[in-house]
Amino acid sequence: MHKDPHSSFESTDSNVKLLPLRPASQVMQLERLGSFHQSRLSFMRTLVRRMVAENWQITSPVFDLDDQGYGTVVYQVEAKHGTFSYVLFSHYLDPENRNDRVIANQWDLTMALCEGTVGTEQLEFLRANVPKQEAGRVDSRVLVLSRANRSARTFDYVVDELTQGRQPSVDVIAEVGYLYRTTAAYGSGKLGMADWEKVRTKHRDFARPFAAEMFTCYMLRHFSMQQADYLAAQRSPETAVTLHRDIKRYLGIGNSTGLGMAPFLINHPLLINQWIEMRETALATAIVAGEAGVDKATMARLDMATERVIQHLGEIITADERQSNSNVVVREELQALHLWLQEQAADLAITHYVWADLIQYAEQHWHIETQEVINTMLIELYPDLVDSLEEQMGTEESQQITPEMLVSELLEIIEDKYDWALAIDFSKYESKGAFWYRSEEKMEPRLGQTNIDMGMEKEMPLGIGRLVRECYDLLQHYNTISPEQNVAHFIMQCPNHSGIVARIQTMAQSRYGDIRENLVHSDVLPIYLLRCKLSFFGVSKFDPRSRLWVRNTMFQGAPLISDFGNADMAADDWQFPIKPVMTSL
Amino acid sequence: MKVSKNELTATLKKAFEALGFQSGDYYDAADMVVWLETHGFDGFDRLQAILTYLNTIGPVHADLVQEDEHHSMLDGKGTSILLCGSEAVDLISAQVIKGSWAALELTNCYNRTFILQRLVKAARRNLAFIAYWRQSDYCVKVSIAPGAELPEYQTFTMTGEFDSQSLRIFSGTDMAVIERQFAKELEFGEFLETVSAEDMQACYLDSVEQGIEIDEALWKTLNELVARVLVESTESSRAGAGD
Fold this sequence. Notes:
By secondary structure, chain A is an alpha+beta fold. Helices cover 43% and strands 13% of the residues of chain A. In chain A, strands 1-2-3-4-5-6-7-11-10 form a 9-stranded mixed sheet, sandwiched between helices. In chain A, helix 17 (407-417) runs antiparallel to helix 19 (464-481). Chain B is built from 9 helices and 11 strands. In chain B, helix 1 crosses helix 2 (23-38).
């Protein structure tokens, strides 16, 4: 492997920036963002670490299910800083009406995470509204609203096995990985719920991005297993057994994510920049930590992690050819890494820049997904150095015009920071071959084909590259006829471009800036956007169903509620979950 | 009924988009309405008063009619501050950053109270602002110190002639600069009343804690506007969602 690790790294002046952070031109390519995996900074990981370390107490003062598992459950959550209630309604759902799309209007389970305890009156209010989801209204006592559908095949199989006194086959469970799949988790003030500002300022337990939403999914996982145990006991109290602890840990929650998530990444560029900057800071921290040499124990941990990822990827079942081929390639390349670690471990322990060398080698020889798997494994090696970054995953999201800036300076900024946008030839049909719009069906974002699908006149402004190009051309013309003028005067002349000007000027001050992709190209792959965001959530087992939506699994391998407060669980080691080896059933 | 701040902002953005506002404008306009409503300045009433106009006349922006190093004059052409407030504040801010102080007069404009949010946001860049305008038979004066989260809002009796649809903004690197440069322009009549910072803050905190009360009819109107930016769902369009 090569010995010049710093050629692609930036060095600037502040403390954090002294780290060898990768450049935006590399990181913000959409394909790379779409190759990210869960890391220690992912929101599920940070939530679980917090719950385990703080030993959150979770009880169920209401567990009112009938013998079919339908009814009401209220979990009371005593977190470190406050009390919360997780209210769940289990309904009969005709299998013909089971639909995971956002446009569905019936579900097996509907849930709400509420602040404080829930009294009788509030419970009735929730019962009248939560099952309706988007068609209902809740209030600011509710933090998150969610719903889930049962995996009929896995759920019935597991309950049948438990009823007959047997543990379900891990191989059968591995094919799906969950008993329920969530189809949406709404927070941040939707449908009358508490604003993110309220959650952030009042409820410290959930004062990180998407913490409350992730907790809602975690509790769904807990309920799914509790309900399976409950139903088996109801059906045959004499023979029923409860799910084995290792199987419980291996069970996650299913998730299908479609285009609804895609606009978020474009509409919250400062937040996405912050997430990526923290992840890159964690990676750079790991690289620097390796500069003094890497001890054998750390090498061994990386080797074990490598073997685990190889197995994890081998256990993913996907019909998507691109993802399937990618998984094969990544496994082969990780096998090479495994052999290299085995053969070179002793020498590597005294080698400087070992991680930088590894990363550079991977960038030059291996698949982009392999590169990002390696990066996330390296971050995993240094929890003491990187975990504190989890506190910096939020940011204020205000875009502001800098009106005094000279137009000539703004032009230079665009040429520097948005060179990727200026490089796109928008005279080609395919460069503007797609457009994003909101459907009248629950305002679902959709992708249309230019001049073929209806709705072009109602296009959402997600084609940032094209907007930058249009603004740049106008700025150039304006600067020619009015040299030495500032941005305020340009806006007076061209007020319709104030939005993109504010974005350019704001994002130019961030390290990573905008995602570097033409999102209105005919061949755009929105699935990369989805995967990027999902990686920050912390999901695993990506199974693309098309270029527009992806199945995945949440919390698979994560500690259980019974593990909270257990010092052995503090290791937080559940990345890339693999089938458990059942030694004693 | 009550709505959250995020929900209201998102709905307003789309409603303004439906009225023909471009992306910078609909973000700013939504922020202005939400700020006024959540700080006790009747943002919804003021919005309702202008909705019919906005629905009838397309978006109109102000024109720069006169300018020197420290002074600007804009013609609002009868439009709302929701559409011309941002460019006015940007223009005077640029002048202050270059020359320490500036004055701007925006004539022939409506809904001037909405300017509060734009001034508070601009003040975060360590600029001070004083603005005033005639409201029926009294004068409204707002002052925002550099970096202040909330303005000082006062009313005074009218003195002298002042066009009923104008807005005057004075800005400087600090409040003393404004008062020194524009002492003559900042003479007001008899003090009438003020809205205290405590009241504004209490109103805001209550809106975060409890949500924002909105008339159901207005909420319905806004959502009817939102429907204009939605596209009819067809079998073909469902394919564009992954079906």
